[in-house]
Amino acid sequence: MAILYDAASKTFLLQAGGASYAMQVSPEGYLCHLYFGGHVGDTNLSHLLETGGGASFSPDTPEGSGSLDTLLQEYSGCNTGDFRASAIAVRAENGARAVSLKYLAHKILQGKKPPLPGLSAGQALPATYLNGLGEADTLAVAVEDAPLGLRVTLYYCVFNDAPVVTRWAAAENRGSQALHIESLQSACVEFPRMDFDMISLHGAWVRERSVERHALFHGTQTIQSRRGSSGHQLNPFAILCENNADENRGEAYGFHLVYSGNFRIEVESSQMHTTRLSMGVNPEGFSWRLEPGEGLASPEAVLCWSDEGLGGISRALHRLYRHNLIRGEWKHRARPILINSWEAAYFKFDADKLVAFAREAAKTGVDLLVMDDGWFGRRDDDTTSLGDWFVNEEKLGCSLHELAERVKAEGLQFGIWFEPEMISPDSEMHRAHPDWALHIPGRGRSLGRQQSVLNLTLPEVRENLFEQMSIVLKSADIAYLKWDFNRNLSEIFSGRFPAERQGEIAHRYVLGLYELLERLTGAFPHILFESCSGGGGRYDPGMLYYMPQTWASDNTDPVDRLRIQYGTSMCYPISSMGAHVSAGHSRGRVTSLRYRADIAMCGTFGYELDPTKLPPEDISMMKECNRKFRERQGLIANGDFYRLISPFENPNKTAWMFVAPDKSEALVQCFTVLAEGNSWDWRVYPRGLNPDALYEIDDWGFELHGDTLMRAGLRMQWFAGDFMSRNIYLKKIK
Ligand code: DGJ
Hints:
With 734 residues, the protein is an alpha+beta fold. It folds into three domains: 3-57 and 64-324, Beta-galactosidase, Chain A, domain 5 (Distorted Sandwich); 338-637, TIM Barrel (Alpha-Beta Barrel); 644-732, Golgi alpha-mannosidase II (Immunoglobulin-like), CATH 2.60.40. It contains 13 helices and 40 strands. Strands 6, 7, 8, 9, 12, 13, 15, 16, 20 and 21 form a ten-stranded antiparallel sheet that branches. A hairpin with a 7-residue loop joins strand 12 and strand 13 (210-215). The longest helix is centred in the last third of the chain and has 23 residues, at 616-638. The mean pLDDT is 96. Bound molecules: (2R,3S,4R,5S)-2-(hydroxymethyl)piperidine-3,4,5-triol (DGJ). (2R,3S,4R,5S)-2-(hydroxymethyl)piperidine-3,4,5-triol (DGJ) binds at residues 342, 372-373, 417, 484, 486, 532, 534-535, 551, 554.
């Protein structure tokens, strides 16, 4: 059992892989944080308990035991003397807004229980899951605010073989008056120090997940979304690490929220030079009315520790998500090499054109053709038809069934695109149900890409989408579905709910989306779902739970992709990263197909181009690249990923590698951008190899031991020209 409790001192010690997490109930009943970091063996950690004294101007607790303002706590309250960020905020019926939580009881549960409740009975929020007993255990600590009649259960799921603890909180109104929950964070994590750097992933459309790092300063640094979805701009992920930690060394902590809507990760360094990180649903605009007897659960927060720097955090999260988050038939299956029609045809296609793509692509070893946007309603551009999910047979020149069969006859499987959460004002759906779009009566409707967002809080909207989509999905042999989402939410309101419940709508939207996804993925388990939001605008663990891959970016320029994929790898498994080769000189940059393919191979791999227009040498190169990808696909998808040279630090060089879990093989990928004058030889230092094993180095004609390779490196000497790539395959021979 990875959860120890010392009754005498009321101390909890959680042992997660190589990490430990400790907390203690103070004599006054506050649940205090003691430690989070590398493994410690002693349960007797009472000497770490803060006294809560010392802060002038911060009032003492009602028990007169010093101030909450300086205490390291597991779940901070509000308006009761702790002036730092609150984990929970509650307004009572009389308008008073104060919470102070004290320990009540705890339970140690085998496995991971209970599931996080979602919108309706029987539905659960997306969360990590266990593949069998013994993988993790759960500590449930009940704390309460007696005057409010509020009980909060803090859950800690402790993984045995991974340095991971996941946390969530469930509030219950056990009193006699309604409570308004204005913030229910998933986790509050305290550190007795602030000499950390914070790393986050910022971006924009076609510029997703750039790595940004800065030292903590006194005050608050926040990353968040108010867009109704997690967004391109900031990912619900942060690292805190020692100031000198790098890719391979130093202590680092990863924090990731399993949620796809408005989120907030707030890091506050205090007057006492301590640090509090709170993460969860963004409290801004949020309020949830809990009637007596009702409850509300937060999404799950993933906490991860490593003393192998940032790379250690990434590898732990990649493994966790591959094994304990991604679900379904495609979890461990080799994913198909796709060809997607979007950049090849946009809205201008018919069945003959798509079949011609399939015919040409089949010659190169592509597995599946995706018909992207433009096949439904009267959709020939982006002004119309979202919501009308019936096939435009006139445009295609045949039924969907016939098209899928024709594509299959060419040797490819068939996939299709949907954007279910949207409605075009010019659509049959909108003409029949104008109220289904999110809007505020009496106010203009803000359109994005000429479309509104459907109010997914309405059960009839979800039902309609399920029905329409099911008809299409049953009508043909469909192996893949791309789920797009091309604008953020505005005019968030639902006339179905009273005034005091409007703060629930943004969260209810996400819960509605999850319910629909659960239903559809359950009804069509053989379909491979890929999430997309104008590229990677909703790349988050919540969506990964339903869809094993995400289109990483609409930007397929290879040089930009080096940064996008490098940043994405900070927390998302390579097997989840949609990466394609486009004909794409989208940035006016001319690069070889080989270069574009080598970069796209660090992902799910596929194409966004018209193969009928490619010169014969590119068709041969596609064939060669598909063959190579097939050979290395298992290693790329399941290997441990090491970032070797950062494109954020070296504008002209990037390198990364994949190492098989048993270290029997590895693939190093090196890329340059522009040739440099008077250029010099450079070295790449592989990581993660077995130091004692002897590795054959591709076709270089010699072998070296793992320790020599890792210490002395590989000399890169023949990178003449712009946009060059090298793949170096290492095979253990002894
Ligand atoms: C945005 C996506 O990211 C693209 O790949 C494509 O599917 C378009 N939408 C279609 O409208």
